[in-house]
Amino acid sequence: MELKTRIEEKLVRSREALEEIDENLPEKFEEFQELGLVKDGIYKKTEFIIQNILDICAILVKKLKLGIPEDDFDILQKLNKTFDKKTINKIIELRGFRNFLVHRYGNIDDEIAFEDIETGIKDFEKIFDEIEKVIKTQKI
Asked: Quick one: 3-137 is in which CATH superfamily?
């Protein structure tokens, strides 16, 4: 499968997951705290979107021939001239949040996670737009 097609498919699936989060995320933390299985699903969808963003970044590093990265952080550093600094910093923050979701799932502070997801919805859209801009400008 062509790399551009893989990126586009990951963007579509990420946007679908983001829409599901947006549809199920209540306005108030107290409601979120009581969601049970739905709350777990929101966490998993958030993790899925962040992982897709990191996967897309890895594909871009390969496609743009920016070298062989050692890890996720190195991938993002190699894209410093491709994305603006604000986008890279936001992806680094999201990477940390994803790691938190993956490795400390039982100890999540729901209130902090709720706030992060709430603000993250807008950040995800900005990152998706930035990825699409790179695809067009770099002719990927």
From this structure: bsu32300-like (1.20.120.580)
